[in-house]
Design goal:
It is built from 10 helices and 6 strands. It is of the alpha/beta class. Strand 5, helix 9 and strand 6 form a beta-alpha-beta unit.
């Protein structure tokens, strides 16, 4: 293995539950009250897919303008709830190790740059860090576009890359891209769920991954 491709929310930064609450408030304001756990299960999908799924459960069909308004309301709520999401345990140390060891790595997230810029600063990334966000591709997870673009920018073959994510949507997207993946428990999905989705290994968080990095063919 020569390169890591990291998901962002729930993998590197503690933002999954802030996104959950932000969506819950946005949806409730549009007459679609939804238990937090149902939203949490969909974090990592595009906002459009998340909203369409909840709307379907409420027997509603939303047009593009309504979906865009909900997405904007979610973004506003999220910035108010979590303007700077903290790194998850081990994230900063792992990224620093990869930089020092000259192991290629990048971030591929469905999130938009205006939502993630505060949290990006907390990771102490270098100015040349490779970051692919949801505005840079046509389709986001569970489609493979994010990971494929990140892989191309890393200039490493798919067979030499490894996706690291916390949600089944990350694992599904990795499988569709032809890139192997490992799962982390730091976003709230269970170990067996991640294995069932196709993860080759599952770790508690980035700290645990760092401690066992040689198991994955890295040093």
């Amino acid at each position: 293995m020569k390169a890591f491709i990291f998901d962002f929310d729930g993998t590197l930064v503690d933002s999954v539950y802030a996104h959950t609450l932000a969506w819950q408030e946005a949806l409730a304001a549009s007459g679609m009250s939804c238990p937090a756990w149902q939203i949490h299960r969909r974090i990592g999908l595009s906002g459009t897919l998340l909203v369409m799924a909840v709307a379907r459960e409420h027997g509603r069909t939303l047009d593009d303008d309504e979906i865009k308004r909900l997405d904007k309301r979610h973004s506003k709520n999220f910035r108010a709830l979590a303007p700077e999401c903290p790194p998850l345990p081990g994230a900063v140390a792992l990224l620093a190790h990869l930089k020092k060891a000259k192991i290629a790595h990048g971030i591929a997230t469905s999130g938009k740059r205006n939502e993630i810029k505060g949290a990006l600063k907390s990771l102490s990334l270098s100015s040349d860090a490779i970051i692919v966000d949801g505005n840079m591709v046509r389709e986001v997870k569970p489609e493979p576009d994010l990971f494929l673009l990140c892989q191309k920018r890393l200039k490493v073959a798919r067979a030499d890359c490894l996706v690291v994510g916390d949600a089944v949507w990350d694992i599904h997207a990795a499988r569709r891209s032809g890139i192997l993946s490992v799962g982390l428990l730091s976003g709230g999905f269970g170990e067996q769920e991640l294995y069932n989705a196709g993860a080759m290994r599952v770790y508690k968080d980035t700290r645990a991954l760092h401690e066992g990095i040689e198991e994955l063919g890295f040093e």
